[in-house]
Structure formats: C-alpha cells, structure tokens
Design goal:
108 residues; mainly alpha; 2 strands; 51% helix; globular
Length: 108
C-alpha cells in the first residue's frame, strides 16, 4: 500500500539529477582542501545551481569585523566592502537578520 501526499511539492527528475551531480562535484572538488577553497567552491557551484544567480559570496562576522569569504568575483568583494562601510545593504540584512538574501538582478 502506498500513501500519496497531494500537498507535497513535485520535483522534476532533471532537477534532482542536477542537484545530485552537484553534490558529487562538490565532494570531488572539496576533498583535501582548506576552508577558503571549500567556501570558494561552494559559492561557485551555488551560482550555477540557483536560477538567475550571477555572483555570490559569504559575509562573515568574526570578532567584531565583517568580511567577505568565497566571493565568486571582485564585484562581490567590492560591493560587500561598501555595505560594510555603510552598515546597510542585503549582506548586512542577511548577516544580522534573515540569514540569506536574494538581491535580484544587478545593473551594470
């Protein structure tokens, strides 16, 4: 006998396969690396897996200082530094509020 939950979200097979392949790739790439390289890999793979993502980074608050780690581009690092100076922006909101923030499309 099987039970079906009609309210459960349906996941496309291709999405599950892509996610599984990403985990395999992560496992290969992270083996034997340090923290900085692991975080760089996580953000790089993350931008490929999140629809519409162009860049990513991780804001860390450590010993009273904000810093960007694992940035995929220099644009991420420089934009984050500006936010840290102003104490305002999506990275500040994510670090001290919601935990994760999607900024939408950037304007060149």
């Amino acid at each position: 006998m099987s039970v079906s939950d009609e309210s459960a979200p349906r996941v496309e097979t291709e999405s599950v396969l892509a996610l599984a392949q990403s985990y395999v790739e992560l496992g290969r790439r992270l083996s034997g690396h340090g923290v900085a390289e692991i975080l760089q890999t996580l953000t790089s793979v993350g931008t490929r897996q999140v629809a519409g993502a162009e860049d990513a980074g991780i804001t860390r608050f450590h010993r009273g200082t904000l810093e960007t780690i694992g940035a995929t581009t220099e644009l991420v690092s420089s934009t984050d530094k500006l936010q840290y100076t102003l104490l305002s922006g999506p990275c500040i909101d994510a670090a001290f509020g919601e935990g994760m923030f999607h900024t939408g499309r950037r304007v060149a």
